[in-house]
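hi! just following up on the protien thing from before. the input was this:
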Amino acid sequence: MFNRIKAIAKKELKQLSRDTRMLFVIFFFPVFLLVVFGYAINFDVKNILLAVYDQEQSEMSGELVKLINSNEYFTINNVIKKDSEIKEILDQKKSQVVLVIPKDFSRSLYDKERKAKIQVLVDGVDGNTASIISKYFQGITSKFNEETGKEILLKKGIRKKLPIDFQPTIWYNPSLDTTKYMIPGLIAMILIITSVISISLSLVKEKERGTTEQLNVSSLSVLELLIGKSFPYILISIIDAVFVLIAGFVLFDLTIAGSIFMLSLSTLIFILASISLGIFISVVADSQQVAFIMSTFATLLPSVILSGFIFPIESMPPIVQLLTNITPAKFFIEIERNIILKGVGINIFWDQIVYLILFMFFFLLLSVIIGRKKEAH
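and the predicted 3d structure came back as:
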């Protein structure tokens, strides 16, 4: 049995070694995807273009502008001199935000009866960015209020005491770098796409060439054939996973906080689950074109939309949350984030591994049942 599996695997490796274009895609595509997505998908809103309309031009208004300008998120690129310029700047997207400081800003700060007001006009076409900008300004104004409040009270000889000293500590991703959060999802997406497409095309190719019948009448069992055909692609997927992790470390300073052994084991289980999906598609499809379309549809869309890679599953409607269970990428991403970012043990994510194993056996069993029915006809 071992010799027969070895022979099939050796044959498959020889065929792959002759297909230089396929090898280029298999090894270049994963790292390419990581680089493109790693740099392109970033929810950190920085370098926001800000226009300032300071009607007061006082020391206090200057302090507020200085505080905003010292923040890494804002870049002052326009200084407004009159009201009519505001609409033009926002209409032409010369700036994303306009800060308006009124003429009585300083006087209102020291007046007990009045509150000092500023106007922040945000381009709300991109709702997500506008919401983040508004939160940035809330943080800046809170800091300004605290500093100026202390200064005003000190001039009166009063020491201000804060009821709660709010100083949050961020665990696991202290820099709040979205790229580090996204990379586990990228790894899952890359592995499932390359695994499913490569194994499904390989098996369907045998159908198109008419060699499947020859293999069926040989002494090979279905299990030996599947293991022999799958082994090279499992090996390639493991190499791709190593390449992507190395690229993540070099390009994005990604480090593994948890057990490398558990990460390797869970990656292998995920690859096997992906391969089982590819085998199922190869049984259903009768041509490489159909197999490619089915593989792309079954991997790309679910792994991007339904896996929690980009969109939080908790924010989805209950029905859609139930639908997310169709992709193994959802569970592997959870495992990766627990190991890579949190450094926790298997007691936290054992149920995710169980699901991947069940997913693998389910599609293998389904493939055997459908395959036998097709042979009977």
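The CA atoms of residues 46 and 73 lie 4 Å apart.
The beta strands are 48-54, 74-79, 97-101, 119-122.
cheers
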